[in-house]
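Figure S7 source data.
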Amino acid sequence: MPNPLDVFRDNALAGHVAIVTGGGTGICRGIAAAYARLGADVCIVSRKQDVLDAAAAAIATQTGRTVLGVAADVRQPDAIARAVTATVERFGKLDTLVNGAAGNFLAPAAALSPNGFRTVIDIDLNGTFNAARAAFEALQRAGDGLILNISATLHHHGTPLQIHASAAKAGVDAVTRNLAVEWGRFGIRVCGIAPGPIADTEGMRRLAPPGEVGDKARAAIPAGRFGTIDEIAAAAVFLRSPAAAYVTGHVLVVDGGHVVAAPPLGMTL
Ligand code: COA
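Tokens for the predicted coenzyme A complex:
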């Protein structure tokens, strides 16, 4: 399969500066690497400095570009504000904020503690607002700002064991629409990406481990396969690019058709 990032010209994002929360691992590390590969200056943010250092080193090896890693918990507004300041001090401005920091686990609602529910809302939803609020002035100054919120498709249905993450991501989609309306006049677009089942991620290791469960999950995807991190990164590059200059308030589902496939009721193709 060709690498989806190959369709973008070299240095397509030269001169851009991006912060990617959750950029130490998984999909958001892939987005950070794609932005760096295309010439952007990138700051990755997560709670653990050692994870950030390893990711920054790997991206530097892969792309030849230095990546800044700033440890901050998106639940702490002051901490994420410091990460924004550090990025602007280092790179001179901020064009793009990718809100990818998220926490999740499988838990039946009847056994989920209020603190467990609150913790996921606090990371995914409140963290998205905290980072957006912290980045607002810098994005406005940039003149062509983008906030890209990483969502999910869980909340398009009543996904079992995922009440906390579903509620959080439903809220994230509301933030996407609302900020698009309020901040469009400041030259800031606000979009989302809702990844479906993506291989080589912590989420899929938990939700669909290799074997019978993984095979059943794959069979439920019209595309017949899990997606790749680079396919999500390619969507993130598109939404950052001038090709998406008139796209705002939209959450792009990238899931091989998974969420539109109705449960089969015994019928098979
Ligand atoms: N099942 C049920 N409840 C859980 C849980 C699980 N697997 N994991 C955490 N919780 C609950 C805790 O029990 C606690 O509630 P309590 O005080 O009532 O017991 C609450 O969530 C907070 O947990 P804690 O571990 O103190 O929070 P944290 O801020 O350190 O980390 C997460 C929270 C969600 C980030 C943590 O589960 C985690 O590190 N997950 C792995 C990373 C991850 O989620 N990656 C994203 C994959 S999509």
